[in-house]
């Protein structure tokens, strides 16, 4: 199975380096993406918006030539969902890692201050304590050393969706800083940020208790969760 891994904010393809070997050893073709503007700290991020990142994911789907599994971490959940909207017949499963799909007209976040066209990785106290679970001093240091400023418009541009066949794409949420039970309660209560999630017709919720960056804090367990979801897709 072709597995395309899309990193969340401030990260490039190398952020999946502790996860992809397990996927490859299991016989899959795992491709981690570096999105536009994330090529280097000094990359040009002017003019790069959410659609540019979505189009990069769509380009990888088209280049694959076969149905793919999309894995999106954090803010990349918005991107893989928009890709499912654009290519619903080309995606075997979408896997949201500590993330949920973003609906029409929504934006990812405006919580973090921009410096020009970019948003640098903020200080750790800008995050909730649940985000930082298992993120040791050593892991934090390595994360900050590899962090690349995120294009500001990727965070604040509005999501545009057109094809309700996106709701038919089988999907898995790997719940880390929140639990699957919390997700169910939020969906039942009509919480706005899970409204799009509640529309999915084939949804699996999986618990992986840790902070917001399981690819750093529990990579083996994250790889196992991805493999389980892919296995379900292959046998469906």
UniProtKB/TrEMBL annotation:
<dbReference type="GO" id="GO:0016787">
    <property type="term" value="F:hydrolase activity"/>
</dbReference>
<dbReference type="InterPro" id="IPR052897">
    <property type="entry name" value="Sec-Metab_Biosynth_Hydrolase"/>
</dbReference>
<dbReference type="InterPro" id="IPR029058">
    <property type="entry name" value="AB_hydrolase_fold"/>
</dbReference>
<feature type="domain" description="AB hydrolase-1">
    <location>
        <begin position="3"/>
        <end position="225"/>
    </location>
</feature>
<dbReference type="InterPro" id="IPR000073">
    <property type="entry name" value="AB_hydrolase_1"/>
</dbReference>
<dbReference type="Pfam" id="PF12697">
    <property type="entry name" value="Abhydrolase_6"/>
</dbReference>
<protein>
    <submittedName>
        <fullName>Alpha/beta hydrolase</fullName>
    </submittedName>
</protein>
<keyword id="KW-0378">Hydrolase</keyword>
């Amino acid at each position: 199975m072709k597995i395309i891994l899309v990193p969340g904010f401030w990260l490039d393809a190398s952020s999946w380096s502790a996860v992809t070997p397990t996927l490859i050893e299991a016989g899959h073709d795992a491709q981690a993406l570096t999105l536009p503007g994330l090529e280097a700290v000094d990359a040009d991020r002017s003019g790069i918006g959410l659609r540019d990142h979505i189009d990069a994911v769509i380009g990888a789907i088209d280049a694959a030539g076969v149905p793919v599994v999309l894995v999106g971490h954090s803010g990349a959940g918005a991107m893989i969902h928009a890709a499912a909207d654009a290519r619903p017949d080309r995606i075997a499963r979408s896997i949201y890692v500590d993330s949920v799909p973003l609906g029409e007209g929504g934006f990812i976040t405006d919580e973090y201050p921009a410096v020009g066209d970019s948003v640098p990785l903020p200080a750790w106290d800008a995050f909730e304590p649940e985000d930082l679970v298992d993120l040791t001093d050593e892991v934090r240091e390595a994360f900050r050393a590899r962090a690349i400023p995120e294009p500001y418009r990727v965070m604040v541009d509005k999501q545009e969706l057109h094809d309700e066949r996106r709701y038919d794409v089988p999907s898995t949420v790997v719940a880390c800083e929140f639990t699957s039970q919390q997700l169910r309660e939020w969906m039942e209560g009509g919480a706005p940020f899970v409204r799009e999630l509640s529309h999915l017709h084939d949804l699996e919720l999986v618990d992986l208790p840790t902070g917001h960056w399981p690819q750093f804090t529990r990579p083996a367990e994250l790889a196992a969760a991805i493999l389980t979801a892919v296995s379900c897709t292959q046998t469906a």
